[in-house]
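Recall that a protein's primary structure is simply its ordered list of amino acids. Everything else, from secondary elements to tertiary packing, is in principle encoded there. The following example makes that idea concrete.
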Amino acid sequence: MSKIAEMVQELPPDLQQEVEDYVQFLLEKKVKKNKGRMKLDWRGALRDMKDEYASVELQHKALDWWSG
């Protein structure tokens, strides 16, 4: 057993849960950092509709298309 696991075993259950929660937070934080920059390859996809709809109308139309 590792040193950290031994130390956690010595803690009361409520503090063990705090340690587990913190480790989970650190793991999620690491995953978020590794995702990289957001790709914007969808930019301009509705450009051909700009004369037909205002930007707010396009947003509503896009929501309708996504919800299907």
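Residues 60 and 66 are 10 Å apart (CA to CA). Residues 39-68 form one domain.
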